[in-house]
Amino acid sequence: MSEELRFTTDAGLINRLGRELVGRQETALIELVKNSYDADAQNVTVTLERHALVIEDDGSGMTREELIAGFLRLASTLKVSEPRSRLFSRQRAGRKGIGRFSTQRLGEVLRLQTWTNDADPGIELVVDWQKFESGRDLDEVPVYLGAEPPRKRGTIIRIEGLRDDWSDAQIRRCWRGLLALQQPFPVVPVERRPNADPGFKVSFLRDGGLFDDPSLVADFQTEILSHHHALIEFRVDDDGMAEWRISQNSFGPDRGWAKIHHELRDATEPPNYSVLRDVAMKAHYFILAPDLLPNLAYSRVRDTLRAEGGIRLYRNGFRVIRKRCFRATLRRGVIASDDGLYG
Q1: pTM of the predicted model, to two decimals?
Q2: Could you give the CA distance from residue 329 to residue 285 in angstroms, rounded to a whole number?
Q3: Which pLDDT value is given to residue 207?
Q4: Would you say residue 318 has pLDDT above 60?
């Protein structure tokens, strides 16, 4: 006579998976920020306090059902069934199911607060990872779900009882690991495309006694753009008048706004364009020479130019690919953005 049995899961599996799936603390933090990207967040702030790590975003948040079916269910298939985000249709970046183990890898207690809109109450999930001990069944360890007062949409993850110290170098490695997700020059959504992806920005802050004073650790401006040798700007106003200027020039005087026309460059009063309207461009000019850039910045700027360099042209929120133009500007060491070509 056969006997019907069931597999069981030891609660210690959580600790084992946390160590084996997420070996480094930098990897754990990167995975959590990627989850914010997957939730259509535009801004994420990572704050390192004395005994806690806080990740706050302005993404879509989670409902009670999504929290239970996704975060609290091991090997959930939610990301498999929805490979792109709902609002901006981003290709999901987070590794499936790693987020919960990342919080366990980083600290002893998780406090997750999430809101899906500005009017309704939010949800708080509290998980004490220390209770997931070997010898207990996984379904015997409780986690606690409560309500939070309404506030702006988004998610706050607070990890308390950090298992490791953090150095500036580790935080910078985290930021660089997320650089591919951050659009250095996001396109502003236009009226006809309200769901155009506005971009994703990550800021790392340090606070409390772990560091000397609260200050910004890393962002694209301080890591890359602050090292440019000149800033070149161009604009066309509502009447078709075109102007350009050069500022922050490392090798000569700045030049203020001056009228220009591509056919009449030397004219005292160039005519306005008859069709072109509402165009703005900003180009950060670099000279890729080791003696003209700080030692620590040279490799970062070089690698960023290889991946992101060139002139990007957008029309109605869509990027227009000009391969020949891209190769030519890349050789000159230009990172450029447009602030809207929406004719």
Answers
A1: 0.68
A2: 10
A3: 64
A4: no
CATH of 13-219 among 3.20.20.70, 3.90.1150.10, 3.40.50.10540, 3.30.565.10: 3.30.565.10
Are the beta carbons of 81 and 238 closer than 8 angstroms?
no
| DSSP single-letter state for residue 51 | S
List the structure tokens of 318: 């869509």
Amino acid of residue 259: K
Indicate the pLDDT class of residue 111, thresholds 50, 70 and 90: very high
Both tokens of 244, joined, read: 């350009």
Residue ranges of alpha helices (H) inside 72-210 are: 78-81, 98-106, 168-177
Q: Where are the domains of the chain?
A: 13-219, 225-341
Tokens standing for residue 70: 């996704």
Give one DSSP letter per residue of 141-171, joined into a string. Answer: S--EEEEE---SSEEEEEEEEESS---HHHH
Six-digit token string for 233: 């700007």
β-sheet bridge partners, residue 85? none
The 3-state DSSP class for residue 171 equals: helix
